[in-house]
């Protein structure tokens, strides 16, 4: 959660999460929400469908197997652009009013092993991501062009998507939001291992590595050079097919910009797969990129199996995985907001309020509305359950 002048307001709205996130799923199971229903005793208005990623969403909407989805960008823009569905609300506008404004979404996690044994390369890669974030915020066209190329979508899709994503790197901007999330999960007994504590400092120390980020920022500000080790490590970096991770795409597709401006850049060896990281003309790391389409939980599983060093993924999978013992730390934020609810194109609604009215009408006729989400361990899942609960819409899974 971005903390600005309205800090108190944000913390108050975040504290409301305790009322609405009863349905967040642990990696090993599910805790039913207060608005969930037992199918044997009542007919719910909505059935939530786990799409196990976002790849099947276009087909499921086109065939009528789903009535709506909540998804991260650019999938909502793609669905609308291809006339499969229409966006009825963006995530920051979901009810309860104000709760999801500037909501934290994706973060970058680095394994403890990489932070210890590949420290210099990890810091320089983090520096590159920080610089890419600054470049995007100066010129959003960079994110549009790089994401369209990287994800293989039309440029006009990214032009619809990027304006609804807020890019930021400072982990302090998501500290309070993540902390409140953990505290609420503990109140529901959803975290049972490393994060099962009310000690806020312990929670923050378990999840975050602020020191590494601060050291990189200090190095950027001072422009002091640090001697690189002679050994050249390989950093294996996993990411999702989303423009939420545009900082990676921008860095990889604009080597001359970063070389000329900062002396730090990625040299392409194999498109979208293999790169070399250079600093002031000297190679400091080999970079291997791993595309993971299943979602952030899969990325954290790969980290737990020591198959990757760096993961670009959402807050909930990072929290649940680290709680269960994955050895890694959140070193920076990536983005806030950037998701939307999309309904099937033939449904006669154009906004969230009309969609809720339509759901209630369907329920009166004995019909259950089916809404797809990417994964139970995702912020999109949390938000849709929160929104339905605030509208007194019952749901099942």
What is this structure's SSE topology?
Blueprint: H1 7-15, H2 17-20, E1 25-26, E2 29-30, E3 46-50, H3 57-62, E4 68-72, H4 75-81, E5 85-90, E6 104-111, H5 112-117, H6 119-138, H7 140-151, H8 155-161, E7 165-167, H9 172-187, H10 200-207, H11 210-222, E8 234-239, H12 246-253, H13 255-262, E9 264-270, E10 274-279, E11 282-291, H14 296-304, E12 310-314, H15 315-323, E13 328-337, E14 339-344, H16 352-364, E15 369-373, H17 379-390, E16 395-396
Parallel strand pairs: 3-15, 3-16, 4-15, 8-11, 8-12
Antiparallel strand pairs: 1-2, 4-14, 5-14, 6-12, 6-13, 7-13, 9-10, 10-11
Helix pairs in contact: 4-8, 6-7, 6-11, 6-12, 7-8, 7-12, 14-15
Description:
The protein has 397 residues and is of the alpha/beta class. 42% of the residues lie in helices and 22% in strands. It has helices spanning 7-15, 17-20, 57-62, 75-81, 112-117, 119-138, 140-151, 155-161, 172-187, 200-207, 210-222, 246-253, 255-262, 296-304, 315-323, 352-364, 379-390; strands spanning 25-26, 29-30, 46-50, 68-72, 85-90, 104-111, 165-167, 234-239, 264-270, 274-279, 282-291, 310-314, 328-337, 339-344, 369-373, 395-396. An 8-stranded mixed β-sheet has the order 7-13-6-12-8-11-10-9, with helices on both faces. Strands 5-14-4-15-3-16 form a 6-stranded mixed β-sheet, with helices on both faces. Strands 1-2 form a two-stranded antiparallel sheet. Helix 14 (296-304) packs parallel to helix 15.
């Amino acid at each position: 959660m971005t903390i600005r002048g309205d800090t108190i307001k944000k913390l108050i709205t975040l504290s409301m999460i305790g009322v609405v996130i009863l349905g967040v799923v642990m990696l090993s199971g599910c805790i039913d929400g207060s608005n969930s229903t037992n199918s044997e005793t009542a007919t719910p208005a909505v059935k939530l469908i786990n799409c196990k990623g976002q790849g099947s969403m276009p087909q499921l909407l086109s065939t009528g197997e789903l009535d709506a989805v909540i998804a991260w960008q650019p999938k909502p823009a793609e669905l609308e652009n291809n006339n499969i569905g229409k966006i009825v609300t963006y995530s920051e506008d979901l009810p309860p009013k104000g709760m999801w404004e500037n909501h934290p979404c994706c973060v970058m996690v680095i394994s403890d092993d990489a932070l210890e044994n590949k420290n210099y390369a990890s810091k320089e890669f983090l520096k590159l991501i920080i610089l890419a974030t600054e470049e995007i915020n100066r010129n959003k066209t960079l994110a549009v062009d790089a994401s369209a190329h990287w994800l293989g979508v039309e440029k006009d899709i990214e032009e619809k998507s990027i304006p609804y994503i807020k890019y930021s790197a400072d982990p302090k901007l998501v500290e309070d939001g993540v902390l409140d999330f953990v505290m609420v999960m503990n109140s529901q007994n959803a975290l049972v291992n490393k994060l099962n504590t009310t000690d806020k400092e312990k929670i923050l120390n378990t999840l975050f590595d602020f020191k590494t980020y601060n050291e990189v920022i200090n190095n950027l500000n001072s422009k002091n050079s640090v001697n690189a080790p002679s050994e050249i490590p390989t950093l294996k970096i996993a990411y999702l097919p989303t423009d939420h991770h545009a900082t990676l795409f921008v860095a990889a597709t604009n080597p001359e910009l970063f070389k000329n401006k900062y002396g730090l850049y990625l040299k392409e060896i194999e498109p979208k797969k293999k790169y070399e990281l250079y600093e002031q003309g000297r190679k400091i790391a080999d970079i291997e990129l791993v595309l993971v389409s299943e979602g952030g939980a899969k990325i954290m599983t790969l980290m737990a199996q020591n198959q990757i060093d760096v993961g670009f993924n959402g807050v909930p999978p990072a929290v649940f995985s680290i709680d269960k013992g994955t050895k890694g730390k959140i070193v920076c934020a990536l983005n806030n907001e950037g998701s939307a609810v999309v309904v099937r194109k033939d449904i006669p609604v154009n906004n969230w309020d009309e969609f809720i009215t339509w759901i209630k009408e369907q329920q009166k006729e004995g019909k259950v509305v089916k809404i797809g989400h990417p994964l139970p361990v995702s912020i999109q899942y949390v938000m849709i359950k929160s929104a339905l609960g605030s509208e007194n819409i019952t749901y099942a899974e």
